[in-house]
Amino acid sequence: MTAILYELVGRDASRPFSPHCWKVRLALKHKGLDFGTRAAGFTEIPELEGGFSKTVPILKDGEALVTDSFAIAEYLETAYPDRPSLFGGEGGRALSRFVESWTQRTIHPALARIAALDIHDCLGASDQAYFRASREKAFGTSLENFVADRQSRIAPFLASLEPLRAIVAKQNFLGGETPLFADYIVFGAFQWARVSSPFRFMPAEDAVTQWFERCLALYDGEGAKVPAAA
């Protein structure tokens, strides 16, 4: 039975944008597994699989239902031990936890200050209302005010990427010559911005940009199949 990945989309169901869903999409490709996808907006998620989870991704693999991107990666590693490893061993699993923590505390907040209003604008009407109300409550200000100074935030954001830049300038991926789940964690964040926002902030010559392009090309261009926002 082909696995099903439930993904977050906006008005255009062919443009999944969740960073966490992209992690899982590439993890499934890494494992060489056949899977289909099902699109859902924010307000549709509670109806999926009988209310199984309040968030996506959700992976349905036979009788198994798993949510949370890292939990899904761990499930895939256990369920398919004969396929290429996502972690390269227990040490890699622990280091991937660090990469996830760094990404969610450094990259995600910075990208939200850049793309939050654009994400809102790509959603359907009911999801726009949900997104605005929930995010403005969390941010303590309007979406417009939240991103108003995004141009001035680019330089500090690029500086914060130096730990990533220093590694991918010397090797193709965080995993070395070939990618591991740690790469997909960080890739998901940049793909989130690429798919949902037309605002461009990464210099073409940056080693991080070049690493991202390598990730976009993985698995017959799986990431590049969804065009950048225009």
Automatic annotation (TrEMBL):
<dbReference type="GO" id="GO:0004364">
    <property type="term" value="F:glutathione transferase activity"/>
</dbReference>
<protein>
    <submittedName>
        <fullName>Glutathione S-transferase family protein</fullName>
    </submittedName>
</protein>
<feature type="domain" description="GST N-terminal">
    <location>
        <begin position="8"/>
        <end position="84"/>
    </location>
</feature>
<dbReference type="GO" id="GO:0016034">
    <property type="term" value="F:maleylacetoacetate isomerase activity"/>
</dbReference>
<dbReference type="InterPro" id="IPR036249">
    <property type="entry name" value="Thioredoxin-like_sf"/>
</dbReference>
<dbReference type="InterPro" id="IPR036282">
    <property type="entry name" value="Glutathione-S-Trfase_C_sf"/>
</dbReference>
<dbReference type="GO" id="GO:0006559">
    <property type="term" value="P:L-phenylalanine catabolic process"/>
</dbReference>
<dbReference type="Pfam" id="PF22041">
    <property type="entry name" value="GST_C_7"/>
</dbReference>
<dbReference type="InterPro" id="IPR054416">
    <property type="entry name" value="GST_UstS-like_C"/>
</dbReference>
<dbReference type="GO" id="GO:0006749">
    <property type="term" value="P:glutathione metabolic process"/>
</dbReference>
<dbReference type="Pfam" id="PF13417">
    <property type="entry name" value="GST_N_3"/>
</dbReference>
<dbReference type="InterPro" id="IPR004045">
    <property type="entry name" value="Glutathione_S-Trfase_N"/>
</dbReference>
